[in-house]
Amino acid sequence: MFEKFLQGKVAVVTGSNSGIGLGIAEELARAGADLVINSFTDRDEDHALAEKLAKEHGVKVRYIQADMSKGEECRALIEKAGQCDILVNNAGIQHVAPIDEFPVDKWNAIIAINLSSAFHTTAAALPMMRKAGWGRIVNIASAHGLTASPFKSAYVAAKHGVVGFTKVTALETAEEKITANAICPGYVLTPLVEAQIPDQMKTHNMGRDEVIKKVMLDRQPSREFATVEQIGGTTVFLCSPAADQITGTTISVDGGWTAL
């Protein structure tokens, strides 16, 4: 999509050893950025993934473990990175339950990982970006940052918070060469979602295409999943010169969901 215009930049992507985060990391590397990928685990395969990305894209890649539910580890991630020109706050978890039955520990964890982590990483990254004279902050929110669904109180609250936090970040950096934007995906075809399809087919006695369109994508008018490559491409666009004056806004990649 773009030439390697991000050479010399370092991108830190939280929650990036699989799914959307990995797709974003891949596209940033394709555009020439060196990477710091992250998750809460510290396995051999995590470090092997970093080596694989480096070899495939000819960039430097490091894996740094950090538990994004802990503010001090969020900040330490940025400090260990040493340089952070592009910050992608992607880490997130989900839990579904009615408000009066919602486990308090799940609420606290979702708010911490989906929302508070973005505050901590941004606070640590902004001084680096200001020193460099350039920065891009991309927060992965959700269609649920703009609308709501029942039984997802913590997730919806957190993602609305991410959108609001993005706007404040943009206003505080508006006169600098730093931008902050939120991407709001609808349903994205990740390995986690892919694994749910066979069970849904059995439950509803439907074929693959039918269960995707009528059950899983009932609220997504396009009746097609977004892809991790599309989310990654949108992130790369927000880091490009074409997006220099795009800040404090949301970009929906949701097949028309929030147009309803």
Automatic annotation (TrEMBL):
Keywords: Oxidoreductase
Enzyme Commission number(s) from the entry: 1.1.1.30
Coiled coil location: none
Gene3D superfamilies according to UniProt: NAD(P)-binding Rossmann-like Domain
Matching Pfam families: adh_short_C2
InterPro entries: 3-OHbutyrate_DH (IPR011294), NAD(P)-bd_dom_sf (IPR036291), Sc_DH/Rdtase_CS (IPR020904), SDR (IPR050259), SDR_fam (IPR002347)
Enzyme class, broadest EC rank: oxidoreductase
Keyword Translocase annotated: no
GO terms of biological process kind: monocarboxylic acid metabolic process
GO molecular function: 3-hydroxybutyrate dehydrogenase activity
Transmembrane feature ranges: none
Domain of life, per lineage: Bacteria
Similarity comment: family membership: Belongs to the short-chain dehydrogenases/reductases (SDR) family.
PANTHER family, alphabetized: 3-OXOACYL-(ACYL-CARRIER-PROTEIN) REDUCTASE, 3-OXOACYL-[ACYL-CARRIER-PROTEIN] REDUCTASE FABG
Protein name, entry field: 3-hydroxybutyrate dehydrogenase
The organism of origin for this protein: Paracoccus limosus
